[in-house]
# Entry
Amino acid sequence: MTNVKDIDKKAPDGGWGWLVCLGTSLITLSLRSLDPSFGLLFHEPLKKLNIDSTGASLIMSILDAIVNFSGLFVGPLLKNFSYRKVAFFGSVLSCVGLILTSCANSMIHIICTYSILGGLGTGLALASSFVALNTFFDKKRGQAVGFSMAGTTLAMMLVPQLIHVLLDAYGFQGAILIIGACALHSAVGSCLLRPIESGNRAVIKRGPKQPTESDTLLNKNGNGVVKEIYNDNDPPRDGSLTKHETKCKKQDETYFSKIKETLDLDLLKDGVYLNVIVGLSLYYVAESNFKLMTPFFLTSIGMSNVEVATCLSITAFTDIIARILLPTIFDKLGFKKRSVFWVFCLLVGIGRSVMAVQSKGIWLIVTFVIIGFLRGATLVNLNLSVSECCSLQKLPNAFGMFMVAKGIFVIMMSPLIGYIRDVSESYTICIHVMTLMISITFVMWSVEYIYEACRRRRSFLTRVNNAKTEAI
# Structure
């Protein structure tokens, strides 16, 4: 049996890694910057097909679910293919889905092409690029992720204007074909995800030679006595399993072991990992619903479309500044990514609840400046919190299971938030509920940190007492 240990795989923290950062940025920019502009791009075709807001919401919900549930395939694929190949396949699949949507003549057509094909491709490409980025960066990982994400936020500010121009010039079909062609830049970005090669290869150590079938024909116990071997149909004299039953049992165990090894299911036994993905999933649900409801909240307090657009642009601008500046500072100070997320996520929740009780005026603008900055700090460290709690070897499956967890939480909790909005008829209450969800994450992680601190203190005191005892 061969044991593979990544004892010599070191992240270069630069060099080609910056091109990997550029490739990751191209992938994210090409495949995700269109999401906030879905309503603008699909307004006319949805109207012609008599698809109401519920149908539009269903299309986007399926897209989000497929993107996250594609995490089921990320780990196994990355164990058999390089992240460059998986990212390239995902990028092309997503672009093909987008281009095929140009001739959509029904809601089912849009779901199949835009939501399912596009979502599956986007999920595979994004996860692969994240693994590639973590492979090339260690000490500068936060800085690299911040740079790769900053371009996406900038694109989200510019894409709506581009879509408006394309729709006026070419209509829906022409616009989405051009956008699909532009999205193929993600395939170019995938080609930049070159695997780490010479000087960074994993060292393979071979364990002791395993006995072959011929070696096991005579099974001896510890005293050298030959054990009795039964035929398949001969029942053992001591009432234990027959050889055939034992063979079937071993085959079942081997099959389960392969599944367990392929998917790294041992991660589910890690309490820290589970605490991380549950907390991050709660934040993700709150973040995605806040982004969706913010324009409606601003409209409900009497702001015009121009004022709403201004507030969103201010938030995006300060978000970009945070993604560029903060990771570099935190990397130099040596702060852990998860600790940064832990602190800033609570600040984000508090800032949003403060915003929810504001009315039109300068203080509302100031609040948007602050929460945009805080949001950038949390989103940069969202995925990095997963990579920090597992080894690089397990990262593909760890990140894949995190994506699945996000999908499950979105399906369970997003309808609940919508129900609270319908019953209360208040966006303010919904925003406070989202803050409560973020606070749950903060509390869960705080309990873990306190427990770990107490455990380390007990361990230290035990060592001190043992040392005193030995000295006596």
